[in-house]
Amino acid sequence: MLLKKMKLLNFRQFIGEQTVEFATDENKNVTVIMGENGSGKTTLAQAFTWCLYGNTDFDDKLVLNRNLERQLLPGNECVVKVEIDLTHGKTDYTIIREQVYRRELTGKIKVEKPELKIKYKKDGQQEFVRPYEVDFIVKQILPMELSRYFFFDGERIGNMSKEINKKGRSDEFAQAVRGLVGLNALIKALEHLKPTSRHSVIGSYNKDYDFNSDVRITQYTKEIEDYQDKLEKIDQRLNEIENEKQIAQSKCDELNIKLSQLPDTERLQKEKEKLQAKLEQTQNAYASAVSSLLKQFNKSAASYFSQSLIKNALESLSKSEKLDKGIPDIHARTIEFLINRKICICGTKIEVGNEAYNELKKTLEYIPPQSIGNSIAQFVKESESRTRYAGDFFDTFINQYATIRDYENNILQFQSDIDVIEKQMEGNERAAGVVQELRRYKKVISDRQHERDELNQKKGSIKTSLDRAITERKELTLRDERNKKIEVYRTYALRVFEELSLTYKQKESETRKNLEININEIFKSIYNGGMSLTIDDRYNIQVFVKDEIGISNDVETSTAQSISIIFAFIAGIIKMARDNSKKTDDIETVLDTEPYPLVMDAPLSAFDKRRIKAVCTVLPNIAEQIIIFIKDTDGEIAEEHLGSKIGKRYLFDKKNEFETYLMPR
Amino acid sequence: MLFDKEYTFYGIHAEKVRKLTFQFDKKNNSIFLSNVNVYKTAPIIGFLYQRKAELDKTPEIKPTKIFLNEMLNHLNDLKYSYQLIMLLDTKNESSFEERVNKAFRYYGNESEQTLADEQLFEQYVRGGIDVLYEKLIENAVNPEDYLKNLYDFMEEINDRYNSVITDDSILELCRLEI
Question: Using DSSP, how many helices (H) and how many strands (E) does chain B show?
Fold first, then answer.
């Protein structure tokens, strides 16, 4: 997306129609809009948000100019409009949001719902996007979850950095980032095919089966759809649980920090933390010991249980007389040949029923293919390998089990030690409240964990039932030609889905790694100090400080640092989006992306001069387009460093509280 | 042949197999990792404990399956257990020579007698499932109970059948020319 022009009509203090054109030139991609505090910088930035999403961050949700509102006569109406011209995906769009204000005869102002229209140019012709598609198009251009990072407000920057660091952001955010860094096409394809949803391509085949051929197909299809619905609900809830858990966890972290800062409880808190670390370690060790014990059991148990039987079997086989009276290198074919020839090798005549004939017939039992010598040899070999397999399984099992019991005891001990410490802290007046709160959040975490585990179990069993129903239906459908065809389509679609999932997983983790590298590079160029950022799979950012020992936990962030993180985050995403859009080879085009602008409202106030310089040098080289609203004082420094990159300049001309004009400079 | 097709547990035994493969703790651990692991172990246990059980096809209980490719992956193990039982089940056949035939010559030949032997094997499978269920699952409540039960069961097998056997003695038998 590149912003070309914004037209405002009566939007708050911007009275009448006013237009700003933005610099879009590759070399001069910066637009600077200067104005003193209160002149309308934030309002202008908010105009973007209002136009795209229909809301603002202002407490006062009325966007009509106050003067006009006052002057509005009963029975008359007045329109507020913001129009943005932009290019996205090689298409020129005009996004228009309009809201009508009407003074009723009673004197009350009636506010209509803001209306969104989108025009675009196709083959030189202007056309309107159909009304039900407009929200979708906006979402495609820039999802709201992310818009705050592209249109951002310096005064809220403190909150934003908290947010960016905060765990438990919605999955939509992660989804939006994935979209921006170019995974959209894949995400959409997967969504489109998704076998667990009844509304997807794969799900929709359910409706295509011909149910007349067998009523059971209808039953199974209904069952399948039910299971799919259930699975979707569980997935939704699991997502919520993860968020709730993370929020509670960050609360716990905060409270723990609080406790470690209270002088009376500092020592106890430290002790508790040590115990907690040990507890976690032991719990992990316990879990992996249990799963390794069970794995071993599944691998070796059948062989171990068979030991006494194997011994008996081998003993009886060895005590018996030679079981196989086979003749070396003689095959049944040889004997049959002799019988047919009616003369044996020794010259004896062979006739049906005579002694020679009977003897030869008997021989057949002991030579291939009827011979069992080979089978027995195979059995003995198998016995040997089983015995070796069972080997010291029992001793290992007993030892492992003893270790598990030790872990169990240690876990109980640590838990009770922690309890004792918490009780001691609760006895302290100042800490009591905090400890109680901490307990509440801990309970939330453990409740959610419990719920999650239960849901996961349920999910597993539903999945098994689903698979079973699908297999059973498959058996039935394969009997009918028409249904067989649908089954084939379904199988193909499923295969495509699996292949895409795999590609997506790879791409996603690669992309995330690249994003992390990019963000760190940018972060280092604007904020020096031995810190690094990490991104987890939900796109949460954490700051690590590297001390002498190595990497220690995430640190509390200062304002300048927070801003730097946000810059790095946004710039990192923009940079990746740009890099991706330049790639053209076949595989990479799966990742479709757009260049994005950066619209910043007074972001430099919190920085010292050195950092302003760093930011001003780095950002225009990363983002395709920069629109910056700035105070006069910061503006001069910024202009000095942005220098040749500036393509357009504007100034706010503030007449009074309700009238501001945008003047080109 | 018994083992070269999809396999289905029915009725009460399907229910017990589900419980034997049920995830009993938060880390998704289960005593048996899959149905086929139960199927590999159960006949041995059924035969050791001399427990047989008839097929139960209670229609309200959903069956549970072992898919074909899994059966084929474990074909050797399953065939081996079958041969072992055929060789040793003197109640089924008193003549040693005939037991050898049942184990090696008639294996999978689809004669009436062999089909009956396969049914017998299946009875041991179901009896074994009953034993495994009683020993490992029935009285377990907490994750620790499952592990404790497993430990007790291992001890019991060791005391009853394996304590006097050394692997060397078996390996020695393997070297004898049979």
Answer: 8, 2
Q: Is A330 on the interface with B (CB under 8 A)?
A: no
Q: B164 to chain A: nearest residue by CA?
A: A308
- Tell me the count of A-B CB pairs closer than 8 A: 142
Q: Is B133 part of any domain?
A: yes
Q: What's the mean pLDDT in B150-166?
A: 89
Residue B1, domain member (yes or no): no
Q: Would you call A305 and B27 a contact, using CB atoms and an 8 Å cutoff? A: no
Q: Which of A124-138, A282-296, A468-482, B115-129 is the least confident region?
A: A468-482
* Identity of the amino acid at A92: D
In a domain, B160, yes or no: yes
- For A576-630, write each residue's pLDDT tens digit: 776 766 554 444 444 556 777 888 776 666 667 777 777 777 778 777 888 888 8
Residue A240, judged by CB atoms within 10 A of its CB (0-12, 13-18, 19+), counts as: middle
> The whole model's pTM is what?
0.51
Provide, as residue numbers in chain B, all residues whose Cβ is less than 8 Å from the Cβ of A325: none
Q: Indicate yes or no: CB of B173 within 8 angstroms of CB of A311.
A: yes
Query: Which residues are CB-contacts of A415 (< 8 A; sequence separation ≥ 6)?
Result: A279
Question: What radius of gyration, in Å, describes the C-alpha atoms of chain B?
Answer: 17
Pairing mode, strands A14-21 and A2-11: antiparallel
Residues A544-579 pLDDT 10s: 765 444 444 444 456 667 777 777 877 787 777 767
Q: What is the pLDDT of residue A230?
A: 92
| Residue from the list A310, A377, A465 with its beta carbon closest to the beta carbon of B84 | A310
Of B84, B103, B176, the CB nearest to A309: B84
Q: Which residues in chain A have Cβ-Cβ distances shorter than 8 Å to B176?
A: 314, 318
Residue A145 falls within a domain, yes or no? Answer: yes
With respect to residue A615, please indicate whether it lies within any of the assigned structural domains: no
Mean pLDDT throughout A329-349? 87
- Total domains in chain B come to 1
- State which residues form the domain around A69: 2-20+36-151
- What's residue B40's pLDDT? 95
Q: What is the CATH number of the domain that holds A145?
A: 3.40.50.300
Q: Which residue is closest to B105 within chain A, CA to CA?
A: A372
Average pLDDT of the segment spanning B1-19: 90
Query: Does some domain include residue A133?
Result: yes
Nearest chain A Cα distance for residue B73, angstroms? 13
Q: Say how far apart CA A346 and CA A333 lie, in whole Å.
A: 18
Q: Are B81 and A306 a contacting pair at CB < 8 A? A: yes
User: Which residues in chain A touch residue B47, judged by CB atoms under 8 angstroms apart?
Assistant: 309
Q: Does a structural domain hold residue A93?
A: yes
Tens digits of per-residue pLDDT, A249-301? Answer: 888 888 888 888 887 778 888 888 899 999 999 999 999 999 999 999 999 99
- Across the interface, whether the CB atoms of A301 and B41 are under 8 A apart is answered yes
Question: What is this model's ipTM?
Answer: 0.95
Please judge whether B104 and A304 are an interchain contact, meaning their C-beta atoms are less than 8 angstroms apart: no
What is the residue range of B32's domain? 7-174
Interface with A, mutate which of B28, B69, B78, B104 (most A CBs under 10 A): B104
Res B42: pLDDT: 97
Average the pLDDT over A297-325 and give the result.
Answer: 85
- What is the rounded distance in angstroms from the CA atom of residue A12 to the CA atom of residue A64? 5
Q: Calculate how close chain A gets to B176, using CA atoms only, in Å.
A: 7
3-state secondary structure of A393: helix
Which residue among B77, B80, B170 places its CB closest to the CB of A387? B170
Residue A194: phi and psi, rounded to 5, are -15, 110
Q: Report the distance separating Cα A82 and Cα A116, nearest Å.
A: 10
Q: How many domains does chain A have?
A: 1
Q: Three-class SS string for A89-156?
A: CCEEEEEEEEEEEEECCCCCEEECCCEEEEEEEECCEEEECCHHHHHHHHHHHCCHHHHHHHEEEHHH
B2 in a structural domain: no
Mean pLDDT of the B25-39 span? 89
